[in-house]
Amino acid sequence: MEICPKCGLPKQACVCEKIAKGSQNIKVTVEKKRYGKYVTIVNGLSGVDIRETAKALKNELACGGTYRNNEVELQGDHRKKIKEVLVKLGFDAESIS
Predict the structure, then answer these.
(1) Alpha-carbon distance 83 to 12, whole Å?
(2) Which DSSP state fits 71?
(3) Residue 19 belongs to some domain of the structure
(4) 20-60, pLDDT tens digit by residue?
């Protein structure tokens, strides 16, 4: 049985990621890139598995994207839908701006 190094609980009962999701300060911005393309940037994701979060966001929003330096870049302007999807993934609605 594997033990989580952060909380000391077994991996199946680990609550570290749930606690980290509740204490985030997430900022969503949109930038205009080359050739007039828009990119939605989700910043402030620390303490969670950013790779899995980016994958879930891309699947829910049906777009491409990448992750780097604790931020997720999604292709397109997703300002209207991103808060709803982040809440669905377990993040606190009040921490998303």
Answers:
(1) 28
(2) E
(3) no
(4) 666 678 899 999 998 999 999 999 887 778 898 899 999 99
Structure tokens at 63: 């777009």
How many whole angstroms separate alpha carbon 88 and alpha carbon 63? 17
Handedness of CA 84, 86, 91, 96 (dihedral sign): negative
The dihedral built from the CA positions of residue 6, 8, 12 and 18, taken in this order, carries a sign that is negative
| Domain limits for position 36 | 25-95
pTM of the full structure: 0.77
**C-alpha 72: how far from its chain's center?**
7
What the block records as the tokens of 73 is: 């870049």
* CATH number of the domain where residue 38 is located: 3.30.780.10
Three-state DSSP state, 80: helix
**Number of domains into which the chain is organized:** 1
pLDDT of residue 38: 95
Q: What is the CA radius of gyration of the chain?
A: 15
> Any residues with CB less than 8 A from the CB of 22 and at least 6 apart, and which?
91, 92, 95
